[in-house]
């Protein structure tokens, strides 16, 4: 967990949250003794990390042969999968 204080290189930004998300975030911040900013930063990092992993998986499979949806269905039927 990276903690950024106000004096560090943190940038101020305005975001708009749905009321229920804002309330839940505020409650979690109090419960975990972390700032709402820390929680949002962690959530954004996790989303970007997941995107990076997804893109890496696509790159790993880039050379795999493609198959049409119809061919996939035909193969599944032929092997008793559907």
Question: Can you offer a commentary on this structure?
Answer:
0% of the residues are buried. The mean pLDDT is 92. The chain starts with 18 loop residues before the first helix and ends with a helix. The protein is mainly alpha-helical. It has one domain (19-78). The protein contains three helices and no strands. The protein has helices at 19-32, 36-60, 69-78.
Fold blueprint:
Blueprint lengths: L18 H14 L3 H25 L8 H10 L4
Poorly predicted spans: none
Number of domains: 1
Mean pLDDT: 92
Strand content: under 5%
Helix content range of the residues, please? Answer: 55-70%
Apparent shape:
elongated
- N-to-C span: 46 Å
Question: What Rg do the Cα atoms give?
Answer: 22 Å
Q: Which sequence of SSEs, written as H and E, runs from N to C? A: HHH
Largest sheet: none
Number of helices: 3
Structural class of the secondary structure composition?
A: mainly alpha
The number of distinct β-strands equals 0
């Amino acid at each position: 967990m990276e903690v950024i204080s106000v004096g560090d290189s943190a940038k101020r930004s305005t975001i708009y949250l749905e009321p229920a998300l804002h309330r839940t975030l505020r409650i979690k911040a109090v419960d975990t003794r972390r700032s709402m900013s820390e929680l949002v930063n962690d959530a954004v990092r996790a989303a970007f990390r997941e995107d990076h992993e997804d893109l890496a998986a696509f790159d790993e499979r880039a050379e795999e042969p493609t198959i049409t949806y119809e061919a996939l269905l035909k193969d599944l039927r032929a092997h008793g999968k559907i």
